[in-house]
Amino acid sequence: NLSQTTANQKNMFLGKYDVTLSNVDKIVQLTDKKQRAVNPQIKNSSKIETIKIVCKNFRYFTFGFKKAGIGKGKYIADALVKFAFPTKHNLLFLYNYKEKYYSSIRYVNMFDTKCDWVKEIKRCGAESGWRVLTRDRMEIDSSLPMHYVVPRHLSDAEYVNISKSFRNGRSAIWVWSMGNANLVRMAELKPEIASSTIENTLLEHVRKCDPSKKAPQLMELSKLLPRIQEVNLAYLKLRKLCTPETDSDFMAQDSRFQTLLEKTYWLLYVSVCLKQSVEAAKLLMMERTVVLQELNGRDMSCVISSLVQLLLDSSFRTINGFQTLIQKEWICLGHPFSDRFGHVCGGTSDEQSPLFLLFLDCVWQLLNQFPEKFEFSQTFLTSLWDSVFLQIFDTFQFNCETERQIAQLNDRIVLRPVWDWGEQFNDKDIALFTNPLYRKNAFDNLNVCNRTMSQNDSTEKKIASGLMNETTIPPSDIPTISFIEPLCSLKDIEIWQQCYFRWIPFLEIKNGGFPHIDLFNRAVQNNISLLQKLLLGGNISSSEEKLLPSKEFTLNSKNKPEALEEYGTDESKMQFINSFFPFTSNAMYTDFLDILFTNEDFLCDGSIIDSTSLS
C-alpha cells in the first residue's frame, strides 16, 4: 500500500508556474497578428491578443487574452513593463523584502573580513610572499573589496600608487597558491598609459613573491578568450534555439538542431575556457606563477581563476568549498552581476553577458566527465543558476561589495546569502544537491604546499615517486593535489540538457533518462550506509529497516527482482520519473522518495549539513 506523491522541486518562494520579475528578459505582444516588443519606450495597444514572455533561464510563457475583456492584455503588459524592467537598483524587490533573517550557514568563508583572507593565505601556505591589504575607508567609485591580498614586500602606499595605472585600480591581486606557484589576477593598464614599464615593474613584484624567484607567466585573457559581447550573443542564440515558440517551430529546427547548436558558438566558448584553464593549471603544477590579465579584471578572470582552482584543489569540489570559491572569486572580487544580467534597465546591451552561466556550464562539463570527483550534483548547479534571479537573496544582485555595503547602510536591506539553502528548499530537495557517486580519493589528501615538482615529471610519476611516501595526511582544508584534466576539444563538450532543455516538453523522456540512474545510485548508497551501521552494531529505525534488501537478496542474486520489489527500488516504482526530474512534475512512490533523505548518516556526509572541508 505505497502512496504516490507528486515529485518535483518546490521552492518556498515560488509556485510551480511562478517566475521572478528579474528573470523576465523579453516580452512580446501579438496584436492583429503582428508581433511587437513590449518595452518602456513603446505604448502598448489596448487590443493585445497574446503576450509572450522569454525568461533569462530559458523558460517560456504564452498568455492569451482573446476571451478576456478589452484592455486586459494592455493592463498586464503595462504592469510587466513597470516592474520587470526597473530603472534604478533600489527598485528591485530586494529592497522591499524586510523579513528577518537568522543565518544557519556554516563552513562557507564569505571573504568579507580580513580574517577570512588570512585563513585562505595560511591554508595555501603563502604567508611568506603575500599579505592582506585593508582599505582605510569605503570608496563609492571602487569595485574593490575592503580586504584583498597583495605582495607582502609592498607597503599600502606603494601598492596603491602602482594600482592607479591599472583599470579599476586592479593591479596584482592574489587568489590562490600551490607550493611556490601563485595564481594572481590583474586588470590591463589604463588606455592613456602607453608604456609597459609599470606593468613590467608589477610583474617583477609578483616574481619576488615566489620563493624560487621564477618569472611569472602572463596570460592575456583578452587575446585568448571571447569578448563578453561575443559570449552574450552566443547565449542569446542558444536561448532562442531552446525556446521554440510553437510545436511547429520545434519540429522545423529538429532535423538540423546540431548544426544550429554549433552556430551559436556556446559550446565552443565552453571548450576554449576549459582549455585555457587546463593550460594555467599545468603551469602551476610546474611551479610557475600564473597572472591572469584582462580588461578590467572582473569578468573572464573570474571564470578561468575559478576553473583552475577546481582542477587542482579538491576542497573546492565539495559543496561548501564550491560556494566558498564563488564567494571569493565572483562576489568579493566584484564580478558585476547586476550589469551582466541586466538587473537594472537602462544600461547598454554591451554590458550584459551571462559569464556566470558560462562558468557553471564549464563546471557541469567537469562533473559530467569526473562524476566521482564532485560532491555536488547537476541539480545543485541548475538550482544555483535559477537563484541568480531570486532577488530575495543579495548574493548575485550587486556589481561589487561596495554597492552591497551602501545598500545595507542607506536602504537597510536584509543581507540574505543564497548559500542558506534551507531558506528556499526543504530537506528532500536539498538532498538532491549531493552526488551519490562522490568519493574522496586517498591521493586527494596529499599535501603539495611548498613542494617542488619537476617540469618533466608526469602527474602519475609525481604521485608515485614522492607524494605517496608522505607519512602524515594533513587536514582536509589544506590545498591537495588532485589534478583532473578534462577533455576540452569541441567534440567532447556536451549540451547541459537539464539546464537548457527542461522547459521543452518535446525533449523530456517519459519514464526514463539520467534521474533513473541517479535515484538508483542514491538507493544503493543508502542501503550500503545502513548495512555498515548494522555491521558496526548500530541501531536503525523501523523506517530505515524497510529500505534494506532482504537476506535472500544479499545471498542469492537470482532473487534480485523480488528483493528490489520489497524495498521499493524496482522499475515499477521508478517508472514515473522523467528525464528532467526534479524540475518537472513527476509521480513517484513516497516510500521510494524517502530513500533520498531518511538516512541521517547519508545526509550528514554531505557538506551542506556538516563539513570540515574549509572550516
From TrEMBL:
CDD domains: PTP-MTMR10-like (cd14537). InterPro entries: MTMR12-like_C, Myotubularin, Myotubularin-like_Pase_dom, Prot-tyrosine_phosphatase-like. GO terms for cellular component: cytoplasm; membrane. Transmembrane segments: none annotated. SUPFAM superfamilies: (Phosphotyrosine protein) phosphatases II (SSF52799), PH domain-like (SSF50729). One of its GO terms (biological process) is phosphatidylinositol dephosphorylation. Residues 111-500 form the Myotubularin phosphatase domain. Belongs to the protein-tyrosine phosphatase family. Non-receptor class myotubularin subfamily. This is Putative phosphatidylinositol 3-phosphate 3-phosphatase myotubularin mtm1. It comes from Culex tarsalis.
